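User: Structure tokens for both sequences below?

Assistant:
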Amino acid sequence: MSEAHFEHPLIVVMGDLVASEEAESRQELHRRFNAAVDAINAKYKNQLVSPLTITLGDEFQGLAADFSSAFDIAHDMRLTLLKQDVFCRFVVGQVDLQTPVNPDRAWNMMADGLAEARARLEDKADPNAYRFSFLEDQRCAPLLEAIGASLTNIEEGWTSTQRAYLIPRVLDGESVKDIAARHNVSARTVYNVLVLAGFNLYDRQLEAIRAFLKAEGGSARERQSP
């Protein structure tokens, strides 16, 4: 294991599975969860400074260098699981790490901001899957979470067919033509499904969050240890 140090606050992605104790098959849930973590780590290996790590049976966390990447990682994790009928919630939060970054596993860390992010995640009464935590100015968090609550509401209203059509469109930019061909339906059918699933509003809200987070903070810069 090598150690890295960063000059700039990092962004933690912390999440857990919703109602995992009610799963019909804990073994199957475990398999899907581990597969999703592996897929996200492979896809975002260049954006993660410490990979998503399952810290407890149904919890995960990782570190990214910037807000925008962290949000994309968390959102991708949510939709990757949602496609398999598994629900998760997450918090994206600033942390000022007091210990070296572990590039192999995101655990055994001490940082300002970790407790605040954890507290935000552990609010089980809040149905919102999208949560945010900042080190100093928290004024923008309620606005971001209000958009996140709308995203949550849209996602949880999707039928299995809407998920199958819309998630590849959102995550991978798959074309309507390709979605139609894969499902052996017409392009018009796909468009109708996307409209009923609220795709246009959903996409606008995603882009609003991304644009804000991109402007909010740049990438952490790695420095060499003496």
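Moving on to the next sequence.
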Amino acid sequence: MKIIWTCIQWLVVAAFIVVFVFVINSYRYLLYALICSSLLYFPLTKMIVSKLSNLDGSEKVRYDVNGKRVTMQMSKLTASVILLIVVYSIVISIFSVSPYLERKEFVLTHPNWVAVTPSILNLTADIQCGKTKYAYVDLEYQFTTNGRSYSQKIDKAEKLYSFFPIMGQRRFEEMRIELLNRATQKKVAKEYLLFYNPNDPEQQKFFLANDSFYPQGSWLYNILFVFSTILSVTVVMALLFRKN
């Protein structure tokens, strides 16, 4: 029974990784993280080995929570995995706060795709209410190539997170209007761009904005608020207890 439960746990972890790496984000980001972490790992190898060894160069004897001996090779593997996770988190964070870099990366990795400015048929904004609250834009576009018209609707083409707690319906409405105005400005300025595969026009990628830095549209923006709030409360509590 214990083996079955362990297998189920690993399957859940594997499914989460697959969804996060290949569905929510681009698999190319993982490749970039692998390359960067590999380049960083070799310069750090000497430091990692020194941390895992005694002063005379002999291997430290370490044990895990189950009392099993942890070898230096296992520790190196753990260190490399942790480094990969850290670098991958940095990579996806950078791309998530920069629509310009996200678009530029797509252009460089899809040189044969054709860029067009489609017609935006519909543009609406709404609010996502739940554990994570944010405003989002839905849009529908249309373009013509080789005498054939293509149209597609994109749900949540862009989001707007709040760095502060959302209190009341009025703030929700302000966020919705703010994001709708932003999307309308992008439409009027024709900043948006569509890329499609000339061999298969059904394969398309739409970019609404081209800002160099737009953290409000990133989940990282919301997470930073949570951590900053927790840190602030912790510091205040520590100062109060220290005075007492």
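User: Anything stand out in the second?

Assistant: The chain has a mean pLDDT of 81.
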